[in-house]
Structure formats: structure tokens, C-alpha cells
Specification:
This protein has helices spanning 2-13, 46-54, 56-65, 76-86, 94-105, 107-110, 115-126, 130-136, 155-170, 187-196, 207-219, 257-267, 290-295, 305-314, 328-342, 344-350, 353-372, and strands at residues 18-22, 28-32, 38-43, 69-71, 177-181, 199-204, 226-230, 240-246, 268-281, 318-325, 375-383. It is α/β, with parallel strands linked by helices. The strands form 2 sheets. The protein has a 7-stranded mixed beta sheet with strand order 7-6-5-8-9-11-10, sandwiched between helices. Helix 2 (46-54) packs antiparallel against helix 3 (56-65) and helix 12 crosses helix 14.
């Protein structure tokens, strides 16, 4: 039964491109018109067929991690691109539709993210070995979308361009007090203090990131300008001239958007400006990825613009400016993946083969999502007053 359901599903799904599937008994079936990209995939036991039908994202991801699914030449990129280019018109099998529907209906519970759970979710991903991140991130350890305004840039140049672009949107003057929500390893805070004369308070829920951020501030001679804390932003009581948050909103959860933006509003001075940098969807809200939720970012969710707009409206915040970055994160992920694969021996010295396959799957599937889905990065520039920022964007490009 499960084989028949998967076969019917793939016949409907793969209209362009070609996927050659090898079944557990050695038979092969080819799907698609043969034009363009091609990929080969083998299923090695009957149980994985059932798991893929019930939840395609989780079943395929776990199957690849456990080597119950193998991809010809490990060409995950071609496989994902074929699937994503065809999926817009597909009607999923009933078990998969029920799973997606349940996740969407229960997202208020799944993404509730109270303070204790939020800390655990952060530790799941960001408290991995710092040596792992050193293998594929830039020297400043920026673990978010870089900004690629011109071709031929290195990852280091694109990450520096991101930080400076954000700094311009914050309109920082010397000695302004800036809050960095989700400060990571401290790169943004260091940039704002060193290059723009700000006083910065950075908060994180990752103990590993906090230790490194504090060390970096000391090494840079900026201890008197930067205060890094292990603290949830919801516990803050001060007010700040500027607020920046890069790659943190994705961890807030849809049920908490109004509380998040309400807290941002409360923490801003009357003339304050906030810049929120987040992955976002330019399509209606949908359920989270079951595989990403289980293995990479528990509690994470990519918001639709409509969800963010409603929350900011209800909290009476001006969206003073909105910029949408499209393929920038695909370029960033492709470079992270290239660096990861170039140093596999060092990764394997730290983690087992299952982790290697999980991380490869994560980097490639996310790159393809930014190439083929209506997904990008939003820059929301927020203020309480209409004219807290200039009336045109000219100041960004002087």
C-alpha cells in the first residue's frame, strides 16, 4: 500500500526534471519529463517508504541521516531543486496532509517558547562545539544572512557589508545606548561600539556564545563600551536609543509576535529606532518544517510578512522602512556549505557520520528553499514616531 501511495505521489509531483528511484527490492522507476536537472535516489528498506508518505520532510531527512536513503553522488542540491520546483502544484498524500494540518493547528502550543524552553532551544543549536562553527563561518562568526551588493565578494566582505548596512539604518550617534537582542558571538555589538561609538548591551541565551562574546570584547579593549549578558530580552527593564536584532525573531514563535514587538516598543526611547533582521515568507502562514524543528531549530518558525505586520500594527509601531533581501541567504548558505565540505575531516574528528549527513542536509535544503520558495530576509525598521528616521533612503547610500 505505502509503495503504491508514494509511486502515485511522485508521478503527480515530478513533471519537470527527472528523479530515478530505486526501490528496496532493486527495481527502478523514473519520474518526470527528463528535461533539465536529474537526480537518483535509493530507498533501502520498506519502512522508510511508509515514513516518507506519512511525513515527506521528516521521513526523507531522517532516512538520509540514517543511510536508509541514499542520493546518487550525494547530489542533494539537484534533488531538492527538482522537488521544490514541482511542489507548488502537488496534492500531498492524505497522511502527509493530516500531519501538516496538525502541526499548523498546534503551532500555538509547539511554538509557545516560554523563557525556560527558549533557553533549551537555543542550547540545542548554538551550544554545539564552537570549533564546528569556526570551520564554515567568517572570522567574525556571523551566523545569519550576509549582504551581497555586488558580485565576487568574499563571505567576510559580505558579512561586513551586512553589519554596516544595518548600522546605517540604526542612525547611531556617539554614546547612544544600543540593545542587541540575540547578540550571538558579539560581532554586531563589537562593530557598533568600535566603528560607531555606541554603548551596547547584548543579550543571549547561549552560554557558549556569551563566553566568547565577553572574551572578544576584552581582547578588543571594549569592555567599558559593551555589556554582554545571559538574559532573556523579556526580562529587560531599561530603555535604549536603538535596538537591533539579527536572526533572532525566527526563534520567537508565531504566538509570541505581539508580545515581542510590544517589548521592543517598551524598550525604545520615544525617539528610538529598531532594526529587526529576520528570515521571512512572502506567502501566507504555513506549518513549520518537522525535520528542521526536530533536528536543527526546535521552536523555530519562519514568519509571513502578514503575521509581522499585524503584530506591529497592534503595538502601534511605525514600519519606517521595509527591505526584502531575496537570494542573499542562498549565496550565504552555499558558501557555508562549500567551507563545511572542504573541512570534513575536521568535522568527523568532532562528530559522527550521522551528524555530518544531518548538517549537509540542513545547509543544502535551506539554500534551495531560498532559491525556489517565496522566502527571503526582511529588514523591518521600526519607530514610535513617524519622523524618527529620514523621509527617504538617501542616507543609506551616501
Amino acid at each position: 500500500m505505502w509503495e503504491s501511495i508514494l509511486d502515485t505521489f511522485l508521478k503527480r509531483l515530478v513533471q519537470s526534471g527527472r528523479i530515478t528511484l530505486t526501490w528496496p527490492d532493486g527495481r527502478t522507476t523514473t519520474y518526470g519529463d527528463g528535461a533539465g536537472l536529474a537526480a537518483g535516489i535509493a530507498l533501502h528498506d520498506d519502512g522508510i517508504i511508509r515514513e516518507i508518505v506519512r511525513d515527506p520532510e521528516l521521513g526523507l531527512g531522517e532516512g538520509y541521516m540514517d543511510e536508509r536513503v541514499t542520493v546518487e553522488n550525494d547530489d542533494l542540491r539537484s534533488l531538492f531543486l527538482i522537488i521544490l520546483r514541482n511542489r507548488k502544484r502537488i496534492n500531498y498524500p492524505l497522511p502527509a496532509k493530516l500531519a501538516y494540518g496538525a502541526r499548523f493547528a498546534l503551532r500555538g502550543l509547539i511554538q509557545r517558547n516560554p523563557i525556560g524552553r527558549a533557553k533549551d532551544n537555543v542550547a540545542h543549536h548554538y551550544d554545539l562545539s564552537d570549533a564546528l562553527y569556526d570551520l564554515f563561518l567568517d572570522a567574525d562568526k556571523q551566523y545569519s544572512c550576509a549582504y551581497w551588493p555586488r558580485p565576487g565578494m568574499t563571505l567576510e566582505q559580505a558579512q561586513e557589508a551586512k553589519k554596516q548596512h544595518i548600522a546605517k539604518k540604526l542612525l547611531i550617534e556617539p554614546d547612544m545606548h544600543v540593545l542587541d537582542i540575540g547578540c550571538g558571538w558579539g560581532g554586531m555589538a563589537l562593530t557598533l561600539a568600535r566603528d560607531h561609538g555606541a554603548r551596547v548591551t547584548g543579550v543571549t541565551l547561549s552560554e557558549n556564545q556569551l563566553a566568547i562574546a565577553k572574551r572578544r570584547a576584552k581582547e578588543a579593549g571594549l569592555e567599558d563600551r559593551i555589556d554582554f549578558r545571559l538574559q532573556d530580552y523579556r526580562d529587560l527593564t531599561e530603555t535604549f536609543d536603538r535596538i537591533v536584532s539579527v536572526g533572532m525573531l525566527e526563534h520567537v514563535g508565531a504566538p509570541n509576535y505581539r508580545a515581542y514587538f510590544g517589548k521592543v516598543r517598551d524598550l525604545m526611547t520615544d525617539d528610538g529606532v529598531a532594526l529587526i533582521h529576520t528570515i521571512g515568507r512572502c506567502n501566507p502562514p504555513m506549518s513549520h518544517s518537522s525535520w528542521i524543528h526536530k533536528y536543527i531549530f526546535p521552536g523555530g518558525y519562519v514568519p509571513s510578512l502578514s503575521e509581522l505586520a499585524i503584530a506591529t500594527e497592534k503595538e502601534k509601531l511605525w514600519i519606517a522602512d521595509l527591505e526584502v533581501w531575496r537570494e542573499h541567504y542562498a549565496y550565504t548558505l552555499a558558501e557555508w556549505h562549500r567551507r563545511f565540505e572542504a573541512r570534513l575531516d575536521e568535522v568527523r574528528a568532532m562528530y559522527d557520520e550521522r551528524f555530518v549527513r544531518m548538517w549537509r542536509y540542513y545547509l543544502i535544503v535551506c539554500e534551495c528553499a531560498f532559491l525556489e520558495q517565496m522566502q527571503g530576509v526582511f529588514h523591518l525598521q521600526l519607530s514610535k514616531r513617524m519622523m524618527a528616521v529620514p523621509n527617504t533612503r538617501d542616507y543609506l547610500y551616501d
